[in-house]
Amino acid sequence: MSCNVTKAIGSIILMQLIAFYNLHAASYVQGLSFALAPSLSQFTYQEPGYMEDKGVMYGLTASYTWRGEKLGPVEMIKAEIAASWSSVDYTSINSGSINGIPDSMIETRALMGTNLFPESRTVITPYAGLGYRRLTDKSEGMISTSGAFGYDRQANYYYSPVGIEISSDFEKGWSLGGLLEYDFFINGTQITSIPQDMRNNGSTVSSNFTNAQHGGYGLRASLKIKKKIDNAYAIVFEPYYRYWNIKVSNPDSVVITDSQLNQKTITVVEPANNSSEYGIKVELNF
Fold first, then answer.
1. Which of 75, 99, 74, 73 lies closest to 86 in space, CA to CA?
2. Pairing mode, if any, of strands 152-169 and 122-138?
3. Beta strands in 72-197 (DSSP E)
4. Is the pLDDT of residue 101 over 90?
5. Of 94, 151, 155, 242, whose Cβ has the fewest other Cβ atoms within 10 Å?
6. pLDDT band with cut points at 50, 70 and 90 for residue 130
7. Does 190 map to a domain?
8. CA-closest candidate to residue 41, choices 55, 24, 57
């Protein structure tokens, strides 16, 4: 599904580039700008064959962008932070279901790019950078419909985004653009708490599970419809799609010691998983 969405949006952006290349107004704007954008999205996390989390996420993104001609080939620097939160519903063939699990996500990104054809009618900005994403799922203390105990999970991703952004101006302050991005997954760490049933009857546990992740990738695509309110402000409507596909993790083990000092070792892996997010942001740019 992600490939079809990416191809469709890529085709739209390419058609837009061709159709609006001869428009009279240039999109290139030098200087500093700040943007604040609330968002609403449908989020799904899956471990195929094991489980699924699904819910509506509410978010807020803040970004600070510089564009100019003072740093050699670097003509764009952008710093961005985004936070979102939700209550997701968990379903599993083996473990039953739990509704209303608190979820939260925070993501920070630093990007650098250059503005191709800055004096033309359409500006193309290839960019690259570094990103960090943390997704927290807190079901500790909850019990599923089949009697399974919930537990807390934290997924940490470090990645390098590489993408291209396009923007073309219409008359009367309107512009149309979009972006396509591929996220090179550098590494990740999945931290999982020990379920309560493993800690009953006076048992102690050596540590939480900490699984290292090394394989995977991410995708981003969006369309941007922008309207200048005046010379200082603009509003942007941005439908977007985001996708992550992460391979199975390295194994990790913990030692459980019961009240009689008997010990046993439990080894787990984080299964291969994917997550998708469809949403829209409404950005105030000034």
1. 99
2. antiparallel
3. 74-92, 96-113, 122-138, 152-169, 174-192
4. yes
5. 94
6. very high
7. no
8. 57
- Give a yes or no: residue 220 inside a domain: yes
- SS3 for 169-196 is ECCCCEEEEEEEEEEEEEEEEEEECCCH
Phi/psi of residue 2, each to 5°?
Answer: -65, -40
**Residue 266 is which amino acid?**
I
Q: Residue 40's beta-bridge partner residues?
A: 58, 280
State pTM to two decimals: 0.86
Q: Strand, coil or helix: what is 83?
A: strand
Residues 191/156, Cβ–Cβ less than 8 Å: yes
The answer to whether 238 touches 222, Cβ cutoff 8 Å, is: yes
pLDDT more than 90, % of the chain:
66
Q: Would the pLDDT of 22 be above 60?
A: no
Give CA–CA dist 131/107, Å, rounded.
7
The per-residue pLDDT for 70 is 67
Based on the structure, what is the number of domains in the chain? Answer: 1
Instruction: Output the CA–CA distances (angstroms, integers) from residue 33 to 123, 208, 285, in the order listed.
Output: 17, 43, 7
Three-state SS for 262? Answer: coil
Range of the domain at 7: 2-130+176-185+208-247+273-285
pLDDT recorded at residue 118: 64
List Cα–Cα distances, 191 to 45, 220, 243, in angstroms: 16, 25, 21
Task: Please indicate, yes or no, if residue 8 is contained in any of the structural domains.
Answer: yes
Residue 245 CB neighbour total at 10 angstroms: 16
> Which amino acid appears at position 94 of this protein?
N
Residue 17: pLDDT band (50, 70, 90) is very low
- Cα 42 off chain centre by: 12
CATH number of the domain enclosing 6: 2.40.128
Whether 149 is in a domain gets the answer no
